[in-house]
Design a protein that fits this description.
The protein is mainly alpha-helical. 67% of the residues lie in helices and 0% in strands. The longest helix is centred in the middle third of the chain and has 26 residues.
């Protein structure tokens, strides 16, 4: 089993052969997000205004809001890509494979803090963890994002299994799977704040992930086999 189920909130979606205009827009978006991330890490989420992010990135405040509808979106700018990749991994799984198996394979793929090896990158991720844990606004937005993941996954399972709108099994299955991700996010952050770092951190999270997936396998292993 590979490492870590942890999403990088700033992971960017990839694009094939974008045009000049698209590349410029992507670069501006990346610059704004990286500037915001640096300021949040230095001063905390609540103590940084969007106007300050705009000034530091040498763009107007209106430009920031053109790319990011809210301050929280500045921080969680990459979760859209994570959700798309998660759903694709389940939708495109091989015939005979269960949804849980595909989910488990995806969330245990190395990414984010648990894939980091460079000490500076590891500490940047640790700083991000502290920013999240110290911000009620970010924690609340994260829960809304994860609820959206759950809704999207439940709808995918409903379509695949042919379940009716009143049937709750897809919803139960989706909540159980995303619940693993929630729990491992929480576990990983507690470990980081306690001082754990790779490779020990990755091994601990991997072990917790294996136990959680094994527990669900007993109940969902035969559900939504393609």
């Amino acid at each position: 089993m590979a490492q870590t189920p942890i999403a990088d909130p700033n992971q960017q979606a990839s694009s094939s052969a974008p045009g000049l205009r698209e590349r410029k827009k992507a670069e501006t978006r990346r610059l704004i997000a990286e500037t915001a991330r640096r300021l949040f890490g230095e001063r905390g989420f609540e103590d940084v205004r969007v106007a300050e992010v705009a000034a530091a990135a040498s763009v107007s405040e209106a430009t920031v809001f053109n790319y990011f509808p809210s301050k929280e979106d500045l921080f969680y700018s990459g979760f859209e890509a994570f959700e798309a990749m998660l759903l694709a991994a389940i939708r495109e799984r091989a015939a005979g494979e269960s949804a849980l198996s595909a989910f488990g394979r995806f969330v245990t793929e190395p990414r984010g803090v648990l894939a980091a090896k460079d000490p500076e990158a590891i500490e940047r991720h640790a700083a991000t963890t502290r920013v999240i844990e110290q911000s009620p606004a970010l924690l609340a937005r994260e829960q809304r994002i994860l609820a959206g993941f759950t809704d999207s996954l439940a709808e995918l399972l409903r379509e695949e299994t042919g379940a009716g709108p009143a049937e709750i099994e897809p919803w139960v299955a989706a909540n159980a799977m995303v619940g693993i991700h929630r729990a491992l996010l929480r576990f990983t952050r507690a470990e980081i704040l306690a001082g754990a770092r790779n490779p020990l951190l990755a091994r601990r999270v991997r072990a917790e992930g294996k136990r959680a997936l094994a527990a669900l396998e007993a109940g969902l292993g035969a559900y939504a086999v393609k």
